[in-house]
Amino acid sequence: MSPFVSPVIVVPGITGSDLFDRYELPPEAVWTTMRKKRHDRITLHPADQRYELLEPARVKPGGPFPLVYGELVEELREGLSEDHAGPVPVYPFGYDWRMPLDLTEGQLDAFIQEVIDRTLLMPLYRGDSDFAASPSVSLIGHSMGGLIIAGYLERYTAARVDRVVTLATPFQGSWEAVLKLTTGIGDVGEDSGKARERHAARMTPALYHLLPSYGGGLDVDEGLQADIFHPGTWQPGVVRTIERQVRGWDVSGAELFADMLGAARAHRDRIGKLELVAGAPTGNGNPAAADDAAETGSPWLSADRWLAIAGADDETRVGLRVRREDDGTPRFDLRSAERRNQWKADDDALRLNSGDGTVPLEGAAAPFLDESRLVCVTPRDFGYWELKDRALTRLTGLHGLLPTMNMVHRRNSIGPNHGRKSRKSNEDCTICASYRCTGPCWTVA
What we know:
Distance between the termini: 20 Å
Largest sheet: 6 strands, parallel
Strand content: 5-15%
Order of helices and strands: EEEHEHEHHHEHEHHHEHHHEEEEEHHEHH
Strand order of the largest sheet: 5-1-6-7-9-14
Number of helices: 16
Helix content: 25-40%
Shape: globular
């Protein structure tokens, strides 16, 4: 096994990368961290959603937002190098977060190969026979970035992947995506609620990939559809907005809406088929396994090489009430009562009514990972030197700040083994005592 740490790729979440109009000279930023949110410029074309509605325009991604991901990248570069013979390369992956995730997975596949090729130019890695024979990368995904990683592994191969870490990933969706598509207001992206934001949101395929798919959260009146991926579940106003956007094109709003919902459902179903094998060989250090995996597309990544981190103890929307109007059409009841935080409840079932402010705990559970492997952190887990970030959670929610948290020695889980001792000592875990942890303590390092 190679003594060297694999290079790392950081995959940001939705709206987490700058977007630039490349037709402008010089290229003009149309989506940035703070200043520019040009929804008219980033709205996708109804007839072919690889392109923009406003022409001429050619919107392409820049890098991830430094405000959110810059500190994570720098900490990884420094922290992973401490016991390493040389610097560990960390590559941020900027992508067009508007597009269907299938397209982004293909771009990530090409980027992984580029990272490997670049790393092999470094003397430290080129001189290591194990890495040169079977090079691999580690992947870190925040929010939707974790969905992209899971989809990549299911669609392609894990032969070139050493380890995976996902932060606040909605593997089974977030109700905030429903709120965003319905009103233009929500914790997913810009939240001014103006008409152009609603129009842009409803024409953004990637946002549909964040819709919730776990059972129990959708409460509908009798006679209504109970599937958020079915067009009939939605308020008529959503389709009417899309109809206005596509007027004059050779596609109907209803057809486009159904297509985006169907593509999102298919992607969620595909991720659900991802298999992680206990004790399976990885690509790094096992050339035979890597060759076989590359040829067959088999998922060789073992479950103990995937760390899933979720946020808890923050008020989060955990469900949706759908009422039947007098004319038989559905209407979403977006009342604040569906935002809950029962993390400290004694009842284990009630404790699931929590999350990171955007992703509920049930939505963060990956179907291909045992529940006990979902590690939970809370706003109180910010350390002394991170007090400013703890204060920011009151304004922005824990979800967007998880990449800035120092995860070393943060332990918590939602598994079924209450009262277990710490895996690193014979003493009771102080985190469990503080947060009523109902599972084994996992060291996050």
